[in-house]
Design brief:
- With 413 residues, the protein is an alpha+beta fold.
- Among the domains are: 1-140, Beta Polymerase, domain 2 (2-Layer Sandwich); 356-412.
- Helices cover 52% and strands 9% of the residues.
- The protein has helices at residues 3-20, 30-36, 52-59, 111-116, 140-146, 155-161, 165-176, 182-191, 200-211, 216-226, 228-232, 241-249, 257-265, 268-277, 282-294, 306-313, 318-332, 337-346, 351-354, 362-367, 374-388, 395-408, and strands at 25-28, 45-48, 64-68, 73-76, 86-90, 92-94, 106-108, 126-128, 133-135, 148-149, 179-180.
- Strands 3-4-5-2-1-8-9 form a 7-stranded mixed beta sheet.
- A hairpin with a 4-residue loop joins strand 3 (64-68) and strand 4 (73-76).
- The termini are far apart.
Length: 413
């Protein structure tokens, strides 16, 4: 059984187990939306009238653990330990959100009450997976047919409860190919500046998902229209919005979120502050900053020395750099001749030529009497460039090169 089918079978088993124990249980939220749209759900969530302690008693303490007891959320593991656990949440209503992120109070309630406290109509439906029966108290099915992302009830109230819903509305609208309900869009525009109360990690995660999707241009345009782009990325000048979206439009559909973020920001001075403010992982921040810092490194590539372009073409993020440069060029009028030349070169030059083992190491320099210091790097860089430019081809020639360069820098020792 494939992981996807295993996940679905386990989610069905969880519902059946709860029902056999005398409780109501259904699939909830996004998985129902996806099934109605004939899309494979990325995950399955279960909602039930069983209280958290009852859920844990039914599945056993060794297979379950509470991750949000006050919110009625319990994770249930499969017996064989395969895959991620299923989230089981007790039907609930929520009180006011004083901080714009978390409800002040939670009360366990009915399935209908639970539907009405959710974010968007398309995410507010439930399904009995045994029969396929849909429970829709919020008009989600109709909005799927209309292709509309609409807040449940009062858009202002839904946004006040959790400001992240503003970004989620944009992500769903773009990724599903829907339109954004005008009243919901207006509420987002009114509250856009309040996105700052949401943690950087949650904001970054929404943007990762939007920028990694082929609909990234639509998401960026919606973020501009609602004022969210200006709040999340103040470094991007307003007059540059249109060209930023156009750059995104020239990326391959499969471009990564980090490449898309670099293409969106594109300014080397802005890249690091953006990454720090969004609290991106070091790997992501390093890639984004390297991409924007290296964007000019392949200009007139055909006329440059191998030592100037080979290190860039040997870099793990090389493909992203080529995508970034090409998207900038296309937004300015046409494909990049430098990118075309580099991709042609890469068809004939392998990594062993782009990044060969060094002919001389720091240990070699110590062996000929040099002490580690500033000159070390100068010598190693110089001989490495000579190796890539094919001015030296073996260790003896490399050491001779070192002695020559060392003589030119004798006063630096």
């Amino acid at each position: 059984m494939s992981p996807v089918h295993h996940r679905r079978a386990f989610a069905l088993e969880v519902v059946e187990t709860l029902i056999e124990a005398g409780h109501e249980a259904v699939w909830a939220g996004g998985c129902v939306r996806d099934l109605l749209m004939e899309r494979e759900p990325g995950d399955f969530d279960v909602a039930t009238d069983a209280l958290p302690d009852q859920v844990r008693e039914i599945f056993g303490r060794d297979r379950s653990y509470a991750v949000g007891a006050s919110f009625g959320v319990v994770l249930v593991r499969d017996r064989d330990g395969q895959g991620a656990p299923i989230e089981v949440a007790t039907f609930r209503t929520e009180g006011a959100y004083a901080d714009g992120r978390h409800p002040d109070t939670v009360q366990f309630a009915t399935r209908g009450d639970d539907a009405r406290r959710r974010d968007f109509t398309i995410n507010g439906m439930f399904m009995d997976p045994r029969t396929g029966e849909i429970f829709d108290d919020v008009g989600g099915r109709q909005d799927i047919e209309r292709g509309v992302v609409r807040a449940i009830g009062d858009p202002e109230a839904r946004i006040n409860e959790d400001k992240l819903r503003m970004l989620r509305a944009i992500r769903f609208t773009a990724s599903l190919g829907f339109t954004l309900d005008p009243a919901t869009a207006e509420a987002i525009a009114v509250h856009a500046e309040e996105i700052s109360v949401v943690s950087a990690e949650r904001i970054a995660d929404e943007w990762r998902r939007m920028l990694a999707d082929a609909s990234r241009c639509v998401a960026a345009r919606l973020a501009i229209e609602t004022g969210l782009l200006a709040r999340v990325f103040p470094e991007i000048p307003v007059e540059g919005y249109d060209v930023a979206v156009e750059r995104l439009g020239h990326l391959p559909q499969a471009a990564t979120a980090t490449v898309a973020l670099a293409v969106l920001v594109v300014d080397a001075e802005a890249a690091r502050p953006v990454c720090e403010r969004l609290k991106l992982a070091n790997r992501e921040a390093d890639e984004v900053t390297w991409l924007v810092a290296s964007r000019g490194g392949l200009e007139q590539a055909a006329d440059r020395r191998r030592s100037q372009i080979f290190p860039l073409l040997a870099h793990p993020s090389r493909d992203g750099l080529l995508e970034l440069i090409d998207s900038i060029s296309r937004a300015a009028g046409g494909p990049s001749a430098d990118v075309v030349w580099c991709r042609s070169l890469l068809e004939t030059v392998g990594i062993e030529e782009l990044d060969p083992p060094p002919l001389v190491t720091g240990e070699d320099l110590i062996a000929v009497g040099l002490r580690p210091g500033p000159l070390f790097k100068t010598l190693l860089d110089s001989v490495r460039d000579a190796q890539l430019d094919r001015d030296v081809s073996d260790r003896d020639e490399a050491l001779a090169w070192v002695h020559e360069v060392r003589g030119e820098h004798k006063s630096d020792e």
